[in-house]
Amino acid sequence: MTLRNRSAYRRLMDAVVVTPELEERVLEAVARRAERRPVIPAARRRILTACAAAACCVVLVVAQPFYGEPAVTATPPAVVQGGYGSVEYDSPQALAEALSWPLAIPTALPEGYSLLLAQSLPGELAELRWSDGTDTLCYRMAPGSEDISGDYTQYGEISTRAVGTRSVQCRGEGGMIYTAVWTADGYSCSLSASGGLSPAELESILSSIRPIGKGK
Known about the structure:
Layout: H1 3-15, H2 20-34, H3 42-67, E1 87-89, H4 92-98, E2 104-105, E3 114-121, E4 125-131, E5 136-143, E6 157-163, E7 166-173, E8 176-184, E9 187-197, H5 199-207, E10 210-211
Antiparallel strand pairs: 1-3, 2-10, 3-4, 4-5, 5-9, 6-7, 7-8, 8-9
């Protein structure tokens, strides 16, 4: 039996249910053929029931190549942000090409950071992550004016800073900024840093944001 058929067999074994009517018909047929002992002992009845179920599975497995994969009912996986429904791309350029709006991203990051993930989330939300092996930067952009950071931590320090023409809300602790959110030209943006950023580092990153041209 091939691996594919073994997998189909296991799924079918889970799905097959021997109803009382089917069991009775099988047992009556066996009794008529044997032409002896009209009442089948309980132990033998259980054995015959198991054999009947196995026979049904064998028939279905043999027929499967001709009728395609059997339908299997399963509980759908829970929807997880950044998981189910997300689409990953191998570069920011590929992500920008897939969006219906112009993506702009930071082009200057702290030393040691490299691209970890570029993906789109439901609702055409673009997300890019960079890591230096210890800390992670997460940048998001989407049409609209809502907070798309996904960071609901209650920080002790919240302030608004002007970075170029942007009015940026900064959230953090101990003088470090962990999440910054802002809007620009009809788009919502956010930048989250797992290890925190100094005000100077944040300003440097945001000042480097440039649009990605399509078709390049």
